[in-house]
Amino acid sequence: MVEHVDLIFNYGGQWFRKPQLVYHKKLIHLWRGYEVDLLSYIDVCREFKEKLAFSEVQQLLFTAPSGGFYVIEGDEGIRTLQNLLSDNFKVVNFFAVDNYEEELGLVPNIIHYHKCDNVIEVGTDCDSSEEEENGETVSNDYDSEELKSYKKQKELDINEKLDKYKDLEYGMTFSNLKEAKQVIDFYVVANKRDIRVKKSDKGRVTYYCVLDCPFRCSIYKDGKDQGFKIKTLNQEHTCYETSENRRGKAGILSQYFKKKVQNNPALKIKDMKEHLDSVLDLEVNESKLKRVKRLVLDKLDGSYADDYNKLEAYAQELRMSNPGTDVVINLSRDAMEEGKRRFLRLYICFQALKEGWKGGLRPFIGLDGTFLKGKSKGIMLVAMGQDSSNHFYPLAWAVVDKETKRTWNWFLELLKHSLDLKSGENVTFISDMQKGLLNAVTNVCPQANHRWCVRHIEANWSKNYRSGELKKLL
């Protein structure tokens, strides 16, 4: 299976059901080089809703290499699609039916793809459409329009030198005015020009350069479609380049530095400033760069929060890839009463780890908890085993909101079930003085032994007695 694919989101068009199902459209939205393993049903539907103005995705479809449409239902459908991807099929066209549109009938499900891989025709031979009567072939028009739009639409593919923003193209299309303005801003930064806005409203934006420079660019709403298009363009410049650029705004620079800050959250403002100066010949003050870094980090924290929405899909994938794996997700009851879904706890124990425990590990389990840093915070509870060579062996782990007798009780009950500990006969637990842990061990596994970890005792002892004779006693 390939590792990366290009995803094309088709929108702003019209469905034709007869004589065969086609989607006549003008606009596309592109994800380039997307990692296949991260593909999820929720993310694809969210992109249609949040970026392409769909109210709700009633049906999600894609086109197979054969040209036929197939319906994707949930992450099971996405997994089937992932298995179909290959070197000959690594550009995926997604289509969606909005909530207000009529549902498409007689479209096969993707899970039946291997049984039926021909182009699916909807309707009967005796039916005709306006396109047939006028001698136009809808499918051919569809193909040419897709190719034209694919070539002219500018995606936000950002590298260090902004090479893809050195030139604009007459007829270039954008999904909305915001995207168009972003591309122009990157063009301005990449070319070091003092381009300004002449007119701007909901339906257009016009740019000009300094006095006597012939550069002009006008972007208007496309009358036939929902997107915007460059309708006037003169890229000739007679002005001088400038290192002070009013279009190098914090929002644009945050997109430019996104990957750098994500890979190194400790990136210094001084280094960001030097990078812009040496690579783009752009002068930006430190206060703006502080805002840039804060924007990137805030968005990164938001992506962490969004990942909680993928937990159910992650749990299902674990169960399918390693049958017998225990994954338990608890939601907050208080939030449920308010009609909200809020994460509370997560427990994981792989089937492979269960088999390792039963296959010959020592009947010895270490328990510990640690604070989680970051925006979401919480506590991680861990159970560790030990093999005959005294090597650590992970058994299970959990993420909880607090470390209490109740959460330890919950964790140990699940661990008892996963490892079949029964009442704890012949099992020894070892731990530090964790909150509520000793009572939880007694309640869940009353026959088990419990011992304190000498290393932790020594560390706690040294905190209280840092010197003198008492320190030497241990």
TrEMBL record:
Pfam families xrefs: DBD_Tnp_Mut, MULE, PB1-like
All copies of domain PB1-like, residue ranges: 1-95
Residue ranges constituting the MULE transposase domain according to the UniProt record: 365-459
InterPro entries: MULE_transposase_dom, PB1-like_dom_pln, Transposase_MuDR
Top-level taxon in the UniProt lineage: Eukaryota
PANTHER family on file: POLYPROTEIN, PUTATIVE-RELATED, TRANSPOSASE, MUDR, PLANT, MULE TRANSPOSASE DOMAIN PROTEIN-RELATED
Protein name from the UniProt record: MULE transposase domain-containing protein
Annotated organism of origin: Solanum verrucosum
Lineage, broadest ranks: Eukaryota, Viridiplantae, Streptophyta, Embryophyta, Tracheophyta
